Amino acid sequence: MKKILVAGAGKIGSTIADFLDATGDYAVTLIDRDQPGLDRADVGPQVRRLRADIAQPDALAPLMAGHDAVLSAAPYHLTTAIASAAASAGIHYLDLTEDVASTRAVRDLAAGASSAFIPQCGLAPGFVSIVAHDIARRFERLDTIHLRVGALPEFPSNALGYNLTWSTDGVINEYIEPCEAIVDGRRRMVPALEGLETLGVDGVTYEAFNTSGGLGSLCETYAGAVRELNYRTIRYPGHVQAMKLLLRDLRLAERRDLFKDILEYALPVTQQDIVLVFVTVSGWRDGRLTQESFVRRIYGETVNGRPRTAIQITTAGAICAVLDLLKDGHLPAQGLIRQEDIALDTFLENRFGRVYQGRRPAA
Predict the structure, then answer these.
(1) Which one of 12, 316, 321, 335 is separated from 355 by 20 to 30 angstroms, measured CA to CA?
(2) Is 174 in the same domain as 222?
(3) Residue 299: what are its φ and ψ, rounded to 5°?
(4) Structural domain that includes position 191
(5) Which residues form the Saccharopine dehydrogenase NADP binding domain (predicted)?
(6) What is the pLDDT of residue 362?
(7) Quick one: 25 and 164 in the same domain?
(8) Do 30 and 50 sit in the same domain of this protein?
């Protein structure tokens, strides 16, 4: 049985711990510096709960001794501390971060590590990179790669068309930070909340716009090989204009803590959400310009007797699948592993990866 630490006892971290514990293949310890958060964690009785200062590498490294891996579901600003502790302890490291600067730090740590470092193992970045790479490799020559993902309320009922379904800090960060892209064949940073477009899925109209962090390492992988590569977040129409008012005109981008307080005060959470994945690649096959798309709509459901939202299922399912693939020898046991190094077929056949086929994760 593999011994696993899950850092962060929020909704995603708790779901990860519960998914892994239910298999019987992992002995799971859930750690957080917030005792009330640990007490609220909706996990099985076999999951050990431990209060620890996950912001301090010196305090974390001794806790990691004797474990096989740590999975970080902590806020993005704690990524470097947790990854540094994993490097010191010599154990495998996986995370969910969408933050570009944090990921660069993880990549630097991976260069000299004796264990595997696999950043950005969630939905986006994460699964969408696996999908995009799988489609792109089947083209003789590429033109565009577009990744679109939305975590949305199933029943929008406010002017933003939005409810809180995951990390408020993460949402704010991706709405503010510059976004990586390839434009006219050149790597560039483009502003968040721009690039507005309209798309339709199953008769429903959505908007999509630039947000930070969703591409993972794809810009590096496809530099010089594609004319256009970008990532945009899907929302219901009108959302981005409201966010521009709040973040730019009212200058709440300069006061993130205040903006977080406003969102968490005014926007309800919901268990009734939907995850929409829309990846489209165009290029040449047999001398003809061709387009191929991968589209999934994923809903929340009850797993292991506990209600889980779509964003919990997809995010936790992705990182648990990657851990399984690492455990079973499908991935290297040392150094940096990119999401596009993971085979889509192998991922989807996994007991956790199957959630992206619309099937519940299997123990």
Answers:
(1) 335
(2) yes
(3) -115, 160
(4) 127-301
(5) 4-111
(6) 61
(7) no
(8) yes
